[in-house]
Every structure is written in structure tokens, then in C-alpha cells.
Amino acid sequence: MKILVCITNVPDTTSKISFSDDKKKFNDAGVQFIIGPYDEYALSKAVDIKEKNNATIVVLNVGGPETEPTIRKALAIGADEAIRVNAAPTDAWFVAKQIAAVAKDGGYDLILMGRESIDFNGGVVHGMVAELLGLPSVSPVMKMDLEGTKATMAKEIEGGKEWLEVSLPFVAGCQEPIAEWKIPNMRGIMSARTKPLNVVEPVAVEANVSYDQFSLPAPKGAVKLVDASDPAKLLDLLKNEAKVL
Amino acid sequence: MSILIFAEGVDKSIKKSSLEAVSAGFALAQKLSTEAIAIAIGEYDAAALQELGKAGANKVLHVNVAGYPSAIAYASIIAGAAKEAGASVVLLSKSALGDGIVSRLSVQLNAASATGVLAVPEVSGDTLKVRKSIYTGKAFAELSLTGAVKVISLAKNAVPVKEDGAAATVESKTYPLSDLAGKLVHQKEEKASGDILLTEADIVVSGGRGLKGPENWGMIEELAKILGAATGCSKPVSDLDWRPHHEHVGQTGVKVSPNLYIAVGISGAIQHLAGVSASKVIVVINKDPEAPFFKAADYGIVGDAFEVVPKLIEAAKKL
Ligand SMILES: Cc1cc2nc3c(=O)[nH]c(=O)nc-3n(C[C@H](O)[C@H](O)[C@H](O)COP(=O)(O)OP(=O)(O)OC[C@H]3O[C@@H](n4cnc5c(N)ncnc54)[C@H](O)[C@@H]3O)c2cc1C
Ligand SMILES: Nc1ncnc2c1ncn2[C@@H]1O[C@H](COP(=O)(O)O)[C@@H](O)[C@H]1O
Fold first, then answer.
1. A10 ligand 2 Cβ < 6 A
2. Which residues does B29 contact at the CB level (< 8 Å), separation at least 6?
3. What is the DSSP letter of A99?
4. Residues A39-72: pLDDT tens digits?
5. Alpha-carbon Rg for chain A in angstroms
6. Number of domains present in the structure of chain A
7. Is residue A157 part of a domain?
8. β-strands A150-157, A137-147: how paired?
9. Under CATH, what is the fold of the domain B198-318?
10. DSSP per-residue string spanning A50-61
11. Residue B183: which residues within 8 A CB-CB, separation 6 or more?
12. Strand partners, A174
């Protein structure tokens, strides 16, 4: 069995976000980059499957050379080989086309991604890739059991969850608690250095979305405190000042 | 040319977030001097469909399909309608289902797309300019969408619902379903019925680990009930199984954007804030004056939840 796991290289969840003075570029100085948290669930699930079913895991990232430490971390966690499509991930459509081009003739039984990236928060790359490849897709998946070529999944829906069955191959967007995050051990870290990381050039894509400018939210004013003995005052403020009741 | 808006339902009525999308579609149709057509898929009665007219739809396409409602099935139906109506823009509300629809439609219609847009798109020639939040609520981006067709989902609670639209004509329709739709075999679902959906609610009351245990959620539920609110929680609370996973708000959970978010006994970790920063007004009740949540709050009470919340409930009953 062959599994493709698509990972993003994103600022750590606690990072302070800032942009260049012309508001056109993300300022990465001092920012720690990590595997996208949802993507890490996808990778962890792939490792679980490998432990049970003897699979080969290929991780894929669309990004510049600066993403290689993150890719190496995925190899340390348990991926067997890696592919980096050498291009800046300018938008979901571009990224999806790159992933589909890699996956097309790769013979993957399963393509796992995160439910969404935590930089652009699109939630769409998995669906685009599936549509481009003519495959079914399911997201966000919280539980997945493989039985031969069938997968039974629990998927979160608004206000609850639903269970469905799909045959391989398909694409899934993962979220917790699909698998426990894996902590790379010493052997994993050592072997990651020598596992293959293949760099491929991007396919041409006609862009139809451009990111013109970035900005930060206006700073929040000071909190208005109400005395603990007088919650009625709070309701009064919410009703008459904030007008939300 | 036209604007096509996909309207989603819950319990046979149209969701508020979909009415918002229809109203946004109406506003965009005005700018482009065209008509706003809503498409509702599933079982609805005439009254439910007329809500779409009130919200701004000039026409309603009703596709009464039985069977399992997947993004794959919906996308193929909407693509059929979009082609028939010559839609230049397809609008819908942001959700996991919506994401699945947007992604498939953008491929099928060869369209530029954006999800979680924060206002009615601005028109600049053939380009639509939109604003969305990125880095999980920590920043915003302005995007330009080009090409003949655009597919856009709107963040919830971003556009007010119009209530004075005219009566819309309703047409019954059928469109071909993608073969792929049959590959997903639905087994069962587990859904809290009757409750206000967390993502749709105008008010959310959330509890954190400060509430000590699931047995203390009675007061959170009571406060929520009086305020007509949905209940949410922090991640440790759902990890500990005090509350179901779909109530967990934040970076790894549900993202909410209600008018009012009330956080009780939640410290305000950055990952929790990621899910609530789009709320219009935030109220924090925490016994620790140093809790980081106060920095993100509009109103706060420093105090013990077990004393404050019961008093708040009494006061709310008198509203
Ligand atoms: C990758 C990652 C993703 C994460 N995603 C999420 C997410 O999506 N959502 C999320 O919520 N968290 C998330 N977390 C966890 C997050 O970092 C915090 O650990 C979590 O939000 C803390 O939950 P809490 O505030 O309920 O608990 P605590 O941090 O334990 O805070 C409890 C609070 O209750 C207060 N308190 C205690 N007793 C009382 C009382 N009697 N009355 C009033 N106040 C009281 C305390 O002062 C304290 O501020 C994530 C973490 C990581 C690393
Ligand atoms: N640059 C990228 N390289 C590889 N995979 C990606 C990239 N961007 C997004 N993905 C995958 O697509 C998922 C959804 O991303 P998004 O649509 O941006 O929210 C992510 O969780 C990843 O699994």
C-alpha cells in the first residue's frame, strides 16, 4: 500500500504574525516553522497504517528550499521518502495542480491531507486534488479504519458526526482525534537524513487568484471590567452599549 | 449572466448563514446589474423557500433529491445549475461542506475561488476583490479573483440578512449527479437535534477547564438557554470527554464568529483565541485577573464562575 501525505510548512501556532512595510510579504524573521497541525494528524495516521498494514509513506510539500527542515521532520516521524515541488505555494489552485500532477501516475492508494492549512485557511486543496484526479474525498475525518480496500470513517458535521464507507483510492482531510501525534525518536531522526528527498519542478498553472495585500487586525481596546457582585451590570452593558442582546 | 447562491438547510429550513449568502448575492447582483438566483437542494416546503426571496433571491431553483447529501453530489448539481444559468459568480456559506463544494466547483467551472470571505465582494471590471482572514484569525488578506467564473464562500455572520426582498418564483429542477457521489456510502449519523448549531449561533456560551468537571455544565447550559445561545468549550474539555468534540472551539476545533462570545473558566490560550477572534463582542469570566483572555475581551468579570454564573442567570431571567 502506498500513501501520499501532503504537508504544509507553516508558522508555529504561537507565532506573532507580521508583514513587510509594503504589506505584500509575510515577515518570517524569528518565526519558527512547523508541519501544519492538521497535516501532522494526517502523517500520524499514515504512520499508524504503516505499522499495521506495511505501507510506504511519501510526504509531499509544495514550497521553496526553506521548507526542507520541516520535510525532514516528517521523514523522522515515519515517512519513507519525500517530494518537494520547488515553487512558492501561491494559492490553493496552484498547489492543488502541483499535488495532482505528482499523484497522477504515482499509484497511491490513499492521499491524506490536513483539513485545512493554518496559514491560508482555505480548506479546499484536498477537494480540488480529488476532483482533478476523479477521486472521492472526505473531510474533516476524525476516525478511519481500513479493512482491505475499504475504509470506514467518522466525519465531523455541524452539530455531530456521520459514518461513511469508501473504497480506496480516495483523498481525506484529517483532524484530531484520527491518530496520536508521533514524537520522532533518535533512530528516526538519524535515518531521516539519508531518506530520499526528491525535488521536482512545478507544472505551469494559469493563476486566477492573487494575494494583493496583507494587514493586521486593529488592536483591541482595554477590557471593560464589571464587579463580580453585579452581573446585571454586565447584561446592561451588553444590551445597551454593545447592543448584542 | 447571473449570481447563483447555494442555500443549505437544517431540519428542512434554510440556515441563517445561507440567508446571509443570499443577501450578499443580492447586493452583488445589484452591483453587476444582474439577478440573484438561489438553489436549494433537498426537501423544503414553500414557506421555507420563500425565506430565500425575502433575503434577496429573485428566483429559486428547488432540486428535491433524496439520498446522502455529500459535497460531491451538491457540487455536481450546483455546477449544472451554474452552467444553465450562465452564472458568473457562485456564492455560498463557509463550512466543511461548503469547502468541499467550493473546491470541486472551482475545478468543474474552471473558476477562481476564495473561502471565508468577510464582506460582499467589490467589483472592479471583471475582477472581484475580496477580504478574508488568514493565519487563523491573526491577519487579513485582500485577494483579486479573475477569470469568467468565481466561486466564493462567505464567513458566517459577516453579512446581515436582508428581510424585505420580494416574493421569488420557485422552479423545480433536476441536474445530473456525478458518478463519484455514489462512492460514498453513508452509514449513520449522530446529531444533536433541536439544539442551536454552534457555528450558526448569534451567541455562544463556552466553558473551560476552570469549570472542574462535566457535572458543572448545568449552569452553562442554563445560561445558554436563557440567552438563546449555543454551548462551546475549550479543547481540554472535549479531550477529557466532558463535552462532545464538535463543541470544541479554536485552532483545531470549530471557528465561530457570533455577535457575542461568553467564555467561562477558559484561560485564553492563543490556540483557543484562534477560533473566537472573529466574534463581534467577547465577554470573559475568570477568577484569575492575569488570564490572557482578558486582553482579547471587550467585557470581563474577575470572579469565581460558581458564584458569578448563577447570579448572571438570575439577572438574565429578568431581561
Ligand atoms: C497545536 C495545538 C492546538 C490547540 N488547539 C486548541 C483549540 O482548538 N482550542 C482550545 O481551546 N485549545 C487548544 N489548544 C490548547 C490550548 O493551548 C490550551 O491548553 C487550552 O485552550 C486551555 O484550556 P482551558 O482554558 O479550558 O484550561 P486552562 O488553561 O486550564 O484554564 C482554565 C482557566 O480557568 C480559570 N478558572 C479556574 N477555576 C475557575 C473558577 N472557579 N472560576 C472562574 N475561572 C476559573 C483559570 O484561571 C484558568 O484561566 C491547542 C494546543 C496546541 C498545542
Ligand atoms: N504547499 C502545500 N504543500 C503540500 N500540501 C499542501 C500545501 N498547501 C496545502 N496543502 C495540503 O492541503 C490541505 C488543505 O490546505 P488549504 O486548502 O490551504 O486549507 C493542507 O492541510 C495540506 O495537507
1. no
2. B2, B3, B35, B36, B56, B58
3. H
4. 999 999 999 999 998 899 999 999 999 999 999 9
5. 21
6. 1
7. yes
8. antiparallel
9. Rossmann fold (3.40.50)
10. HHHH--EEEEEE
11. A136, A166, A167, A170, B72
12. A114, A141
Max CA-CA distance within chain A?
67
Task: Give the Cα separation of A74 and A85 in Å (integer).
Answer: 16
Secondary structure (3-state) at A104 = helix
Minimal C-alpha gap between A164 and chain B (Å): 4
The secondary element (H helix, E strand) that includes residue A24 is none
Q: How confident is the model at residue A101 (pLDDT cuts 50, 70, 90)?
A: very high
CA distances from A95 to A155, A207, B71, B201 (A): 24, 11, 21, 34
Q: Which residues have a Cβ under 8 Å from the Cβ of B209 and sit 6 or more positions away?
A: B234, B236, B237, B240, B265, B266, B267
B272 CB less than 6 Å from ligand 1? yes
Whether A231 maps to a domain, the answer reads: no
Q: Which residue has the cell 465561530?
A: B256
User: Ligand 1 centroid vs A183 CA: distance in angstroms?
Assistant: 23
Q: What is the mean pLDDT of residues B295-311?
A: 97
- 3-class secondary structure, B39: strand
In a domain, A80, yes or no: yes
Cβ atoms of A198 and A81 closer than 8 Å = yes
- pLDDT band of residue B194 (cuts 50, 70, 90) is low
Domain-by-domain residue ranges, chain B?
2-172, 198-318
User: Domain span at residue A143?
Assistant: 2-219
pLDDT attached to residue B5: 98
pLDDT at B69: 82
A20 part of a folded domain: yes
Nearest to A141 by CA among B277, B156, B184: B184
- Higher pLDDT among residues B162 and B196, named by residue: B162
Specify the pTM: 0.93
Cα separation, A157 vs B28, whole angstroms? 29
The verdict on domain B2-172 having CATH code 3.40.190.10 is: no
Backbone torsions φ then ψ of B171, nearest 5 degrees: -115, 135
Percent of chain A with pLDDT over 90: 92
Q: What is the CATH number for A38? A: 3.40.50.620
Pocket test for ligand 2, best of A71, A95, A133 (most atoms within 8 A of CB): A95
User: How far apart, in whole angstroms, are the C-alpha atoms of residue A213 and residue A197?
Assistant: 33
Residue B32: left if φ>0, alpha if ψ -120 to 50, beta else—which one? alpha
Q: Which residues on chain A are in Cβ contact (under 8 Å) with B108?
A: 131
The rounded Å distance from CA A6 to ligand 2 centre is 6
ipTM of this complex: 0.92
